[in-house]
Structures are given as C-alpha cells and as structure tokens.
Q: What sequence folds into this?
C-alpha cells in the first residue's frame, strides 16, 4: 500500500463524518452555538472546508473553489473572501450562517471531491516536495496533507458533538 492509498482512505472517511453531523439539521439548528458561545455546526464545517480548500489550493497551485466557483458570492458572508476562520472572534463565528444544510454540504462535497482526486494521483516522491517555506523546518506536502486531515477530523468530531447537544436540547423542550 502506498502513502497515497493511505491518504485516500483517510480523506475518504471525511464525508461520512461531515454529512452525519449536518444532515437533518435545519438552518437555525446549524447556526446554534451550544452554550451560547461554542462554534456552531455551520461554522465548524465551513471552517474545515475552507481550510482544506485554501491549503490544497496553495499546495497544488489551483484557485480556491470558495472564490473560483462562486461559493463566497453565493454565501454572502460579511467576511473577507480569503478568510478561512482561523482565529475568529465570537462575532465572526456568529457571522457564518447558512440557508440550508445542502448549502453547507454542496461546498464541502465540491472541495472534498477535489481533495480526493488530487490525493489519489500522488506518488510517494511527490509527498516530499516542500510546499511552504515559511516554517522551520519547511513543510512538505505530506505534512500539509496530514495537518489538513487532522484539522478536518477534529472539527467534524466537534460538529457531531454540537449536533448531539442541539438535538438533546430540542428533545427536552
């Protein structure tokens, strides 16, 4: 099994996690911030998708789907189109809302499809290529892909947890 096969398997698990966290929730539920200040499901999934979109774009030299395919314009968020959510204030988190679960999943699915196709075509030697020299040591493609995956899995888990809190609160009303 090659490194690409392992990465393909790992990235291929994300859709079940993300769809499981999002499907069946309406726009209001997706925007609920458990405890009044936690990240919403909408923000968590938007953020993990924006991070993947931005990092894959930079590493593979293609435009971000967020802007190139018009998602930023259609979503109409009051954020800079280059914003990925890193370091967001509570007000910025609250600004990330969706009209529907489908809106959130359409963007995620588009980015996920691109990520999976790019990872599937990699050779082991490609993974040693330096993609970011701003760090010491410089970041290789393998390190970047693992970092993005790690971030996505953590945020998908948080979205699933937030979903459970939201549904439990709804059940008790």
A:
């Amino acid at each position: 099994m090659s490194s690409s096969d392992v990465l393909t398997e790992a990235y291929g698990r994300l859709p079940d996690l993300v769809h499981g966290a999002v499907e069946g929730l309406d726009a209001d539920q997706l925007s609920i911030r458990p405890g009044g200040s936690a990240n919403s499901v909408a923000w968590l999934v938007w953020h993990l998708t924006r991070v993947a979109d931005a990092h894959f774009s930079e590493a593979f030299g293609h435009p971000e789907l967020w802007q190139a395919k018009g998602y930023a314009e259609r979503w109409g968020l009051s954020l800079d189109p280059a914003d990925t959510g890193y370091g967001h204030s509570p007000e910025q988190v609250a600004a990330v809302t969706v009209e529907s679960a489908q809106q959130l999943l359409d963007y995620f699915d588009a980015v996920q499809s691109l990520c999976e196709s790019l990872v599937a075509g990699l050779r082991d030697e490609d993974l040693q290529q330096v993609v970011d020299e701003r760090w010491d040591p410089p970041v290789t493609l393998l390190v970047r892909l693992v970092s993005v995956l790690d971030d996505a899995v953590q945020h998908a888990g948080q979205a699933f947890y937030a979903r459970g809190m939201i549904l439990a609160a709804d059940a008790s009303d």
